[in-house]
Write a structure and sequence with these properties.
The chain is built from 15 helices and 42 strands. The protein has five domains: about 150 residues, Jelly Rolls, CATH 2.60.120; about 90 residues, Sandwich (Immunoglobulin-like), CATH 2.60.40; about 280 residues, Alpha-Beta Barrel (TIM Barrel); about 70 residues, Immunoglobulins (Immunoglobulin-like), CATH 2.60.40; about 90 residues, no CATH class. The protein has about 725 residues and is an alpha+beta fold. The radius of gyration is 28 Å and the shape is globular. The structure holds (2S,3S,4S,5R)-3,4,5-trihydroxy-6-oxo-oxane-2-carboxylic acid (GCB).
């Protein structure tokens, strides 16, 4: 028998970088807390990039009773970023990496025992992540347990292993599955049971399941269980799924022999007010939202998530991209940490049928050159994945400016890109062009879309939404385009919206909020589903019929005619204004109606039994509370094309056109030289980046200047100079 005790209560917490003896001595004066816990739940979410990154202590007394068993192990399921464990005055373990499980044996057990754990999330040049767009919450933010076992027991130490590894291989022709179960233990024999059959072996058994009931994604996520038992009574088990899949360069993802395009979202593991210290109810609520949305895949970014969440993915048929926190900036001293993180991820998550790929890194070339050290690190990771798991392909999420002929793209089995054209820079169509070019150039490579998104604060609204205005309307328009782009390119093996939920990035301060990345389809507190959520729900959720009126918070409208947009998974939608029918439209997902405004109105959308209602008001002056950045608002609308003499150059010409003329090129170069002086980093990365220059060449000077934050007068000035040069 094994006895598991969750150490939830009776912890003392001291946020101080002090020696272990001092922490134990002053523990009584510490703050009483329960686990899971993070010390950055507030300061990691309020902006300023000034949250506490250092050491803190968790101290607790353990009775002999809590440790009862022939052997006792401490299990920590997440200590971010590093942990040092002290037991009865001796240091017994050091662990680097904040997202995986690790265990240590507790010996020297007394009547009363003191456990003291120092957790540290300070800067380091060897533990990932160090540079990334999310808060690195410090703490013991997942469960801490005592596992008491007999002398003969399953392995507990090595890379946090669950003690058994289940490999089901399905023969596509017969539908039969061959299930190999390997175990690690210190006994002579083990009894392994699968599907009602028990084998007594040294450590490994192979089972045959005729006509296996397949794990078939969201349609039928059927799970089997493998159980392993020792004569001592120690037992472990794992659920597994029988499925086969492939990623095809032309057909995209196929599950169990059938086309099954992976279409979904990414998830970070934090929420407002709690940070990363989530409990099972939080995980379940997130999964309910995923199901409501109708997504069939999740990218669990940018690190190993809680076992409870992978379990939920198994149960609900959600295909998962799992990855390690090797992100943004390669560190020469970080190689061992990446390999360890990958070893732990695969060891601990191998049995989950939901996981379909291992992600080697994310945007690793964003702040690092593609040099031999970085390539070598990726090759080692890739080989490690293949060595540990012959059943799953590897991938990585590349930054948009990585040249598609970069040697790094040849390392993983399948490729993926993160693109933000239409948000940070460029036009929406550039997403389409990027994939068309890639697919034409590399018809034999599998390519996916690992991130795309746009920020929206539900307080901001516009009838003329523009890139970077943070309105709910722009985010919705952005996703309408991207959804269509994806629909037209079924070869994309997986696509993941960035992100399902707003999340904390304490370094951010934008879009009317401090410390938040607002690319979520749902707000950080999970309370509000932005319009873009309903677009995807209309596209993906075939079960729950609904109509959704967009822009409900855009109440005050300074216009005679306003556009009312409805997202729905029904075929026809009828709109009513103050009880009077405006019209009925047939279509797919998006239904728009023009409505004349005179005063206060009730708008109602109906399809069969589904209805949605909102109130809007005709006002004389635009409601300024709907505009995030008034200066930006002006720049967006002030420029009038008619002002320009078409015989001469203007800011409305593309960057490429301006570079092609010697005179205008000189103007642009002079301007760039000024920028280099002012913003060396950005300008330098433009200069050395042919992919970026190619992309910029297609953009108008006006949009480049606006993106660069040039104010109205600055734009006028450049325009005046260009207007002095004849075409
Ligand atoms: C990315 C990163 C992700 C960021 C996202 C963004 O490419 O992979 O971590 O949060 O962009 O919103 O900028």
């Amino acid at each position: 028998m094994r006895k598991i005790t969750v150490l939830r209560d009776n912890w003392k917490f001291l946020k101080a970088d002090i020696p272990a003896e001092t922490a134990v001595q002053y523990a009584a004066q510490g703050e009483s807390i329960t686990l899971p816990h993070t010390w950055n739940a507030v300061d990691g979410q309020d902006g300023g990039n000034d949250y506490y990154r250092g050491t803190a202590w968790y101290v607790r007394t353990l009775t002999k009773e809590e440790l009862a068993g022939e052997k006792a192990y401490l299990e920590i399921n997440g200590a971010n970023h590093t942990a040092d464990v002290w037991f009865n005055g001796a240091k017994i373990c050091h662990h680097e990496g904040g997202y995986s499980t690790f265990r240590v044996e507790l010996t020297d057990i007394r009547e009363e025992n003191t456990l003291a754990i120092a957790v540290n999330n300070a800067d380091s040049d060897r533990v990932y992540p160090q540079k990334a767009d999310f808060t690195f919450y410090g703490g013991l933010y997942r469960e801490v347990r005592i596992i008491a076992v007999p002398n003969e027991h399953f392995e507990l130490i090595k890379d946090g292993t669950p003690g058994l590894k289940v490999t089901p291989v399905v023969d596509p022709k017969t539908g039969d599955a061959e299930v190999t179960v390997e175990t690690w233990h210190n006994a002579d024999h083990v009894e392994i049971t699968v599907n009602g059959e028990t084998q007594c072996v040294e450590n490994k058994a192979v089972f045959h399941i005729p006509h296996a009931h397949l794990w078939d994604g969201v349609n039928d996520p059927y799970l089997y269980t493998a159980e392993a038992k020792l004569a001592s009574g120690d037992a472990v088990s794992a659920r597994f799924g029988c499925r086969y899949y492939e990623c095809d360069p032309e057909k995209g993802f196929l599950l169990n022999g059938k086309s099954y395009p992976l279409r979904g979202v990414s998830r970070h593991q934090d929420r407002k007010g709690k940070g990363n210290a989530l409990d099972i109810a939080d995980h379940r609520e997130d999964m309910e939202i995923v199901k409501e949305l109708g997504a069939n895949t999740l990218r669990l970014a940018h690190y190993q998530h809680a076992q409870e969440f992978y379990d939920l993915c198994d149960e609900n048929g959600i295909a998962v991209w799992a990855e390690i926190p090797y992100i943004t900036m390669h560190m020469t001293n970080g190689r061992e940490n990446t390999l360890q993180a990958m070893r732990e991820l695969i060891t601990q998550c191998y049995n989950h049928p939901s996981i379909v790929v291992w992600g080697l890194s994310n945007e690793i070339t964003a702040a690092s050159a593609v040099n031999e050290d970085l390539l070598e690190n990726h090759r080692l990771l890739n080989d490690l994945c293949h060595h540990m798991d012959s059943t799953r392909p590897t991938t990585m999420a590349n930054v948009f400016m990585l040249e598609t002929d970069s040697p790094i793209l040849e390392i993983p089995d399948i490729n993926s890109y993160n693109l933000y054209f239409g948000w940070y820079l460029g036009d929406l169509e550039q997403n389409d062009e990027f994939f068309d070019d890639y697919h034409a150039k590399y018809p034999n490579r599998v390519i996916g879309f690992s991130e795309y998104g746009a920020d929206a604060n539900p307080a901001y609204h516009s009838s003329n939404p523009q890139r970077s205005d943070y309105t709910e309307e722009y985010q919705a328009l952005y996703h309408e385009h991207l959804w269509k782009m994806i629909e037209e390119r079924p070869y994309l093996w997986a696509t993941h919206v960035w992100n399902l939920f707003d999340f904390a990035a304490d370094g951010r301060d934008e879009g009317g909020k401090h410390g938040e990345n607002q690319k979520g389809l749902v707000t950080f507190d999970r309370k509000y589903r932005k319009d873009a959520f309903w677009l995807y729900k209309a596209a993906w959720n075939k079960k729950d019929a609904f109509v959704h009126l967009c822009s409900k918070n855009y109440v005050n409208r300074a216009e005679d005619t306003t556009m009312i947009k409805v997202y729905s998974n029904c075929d026809t939608v009828t709109l009513y204004q103050d009880g009077k029918e405006i019209g009925t439209k047939s279509g797919h997902l998006v239904f728009t109606f023009d409505v004349t405004l005179t005063g206060e109105h009730e708008i109602c959308a109906v399809s069969g039994a589904c209805r949605d209602t909102m109130h809007i008001v005709r006002v004389q002056q635009p409601d300024e509370s709907y505009i995030f950045n008034k200066a930006l608002g002006q720049v967006t609308n002030w420029f009038d094309a008619e002002e320009n003499d078409p015989a001469c150059f203007s800011v409305e010409d593309t960057y490429g056109e301006l570079l092609a003329n010697e005179q205008t090129k000189a103007v642009i170069e002079a301007m760039m030289a000024k920028n280099v002086a002012e913003r060396g980093d950005v300008a330098q990365s433009v200069k050395n980046n042919p992919a970026l220059i190619r992309m910029m060449s297609r953009m108008t000077m006006l949009s480049l200047l606006k993106q660069g934050g040039t104010d109205e007068e600055g734009i006028r000035q450049v325009n005046r100079i260009l207007q002095g040069i004849r075409k």
